[in-house]
């Protein structure tokens, strides 16, 4: 059964940090590129970050590039999103997604998604 489960979302204040986790049941986890997307109320789901199968390649949306860091532990079937210096505009539901190509993951074309975790940043 293919499954992604996110956790770690919370209500925090501006300037705080959070670490999101995405635990995967995907068969061979290291075959997959993993990405994070977010969706704010009334807005589209947008790309945040992605990481290659071996963790060497990463990609970020410009507004989070200096504040967020994506990493993975293939032994634990887990991808992390470390979020520092959070801002109110980071408030959203955060989703992880998995795919076999960077293109499919980066463009949100994969069919494998988690249920999301809520991050709320107060001013």
Notes on the protein architecture:
With 123 residues, the chain is mostly beta strands. Helix content is 4%, strand content 50%. It has one helix at residues 102-106; strands at residues 3-7, 11-13, 18-25, 33-39, 45-51, 58-60, 68-73, 78-83, 92-99, 112-113, 117-122. The mean pLDDT is 96.
Between the first and last Cα atoms, what is the distance in angstroms?
40 Å
Give the number of helices: 1
Major sheet size, sense and barrel closure: 7 strands, mixed
Order of helices and strands: EEEEEEEEEHEE
Structural class per helix/strand content? mainly beta
The counted number of beta strands is 11
Spans of at least 5 consecutive residues with low confidence:
none
Report strand %: over 45%
Shape: globular
Helical residue percent band: under 10%
Average pLDDT over all residues: 96
Radius of gyration: 13 Å
List its salient traits.
single chain, 123 residues, 7-stranded mixed β-sheet, 4-stranded antiparallel β-sheet
Fold blueprint:
Layout: E1 3-7, E2 11-13, E3 18-25, E4 33-39, E5 45-51, E6 58-60, E7 68-73, E8 78-83, E9 92-99, H1 102-106, E10 112-113, E11 117-122
Parallel strand pairs: 2-11
Antiparallel strand pairs: 1-3, 3-8, 4-5, 4-9, 5-6, 7-8, 9-10, 9-11
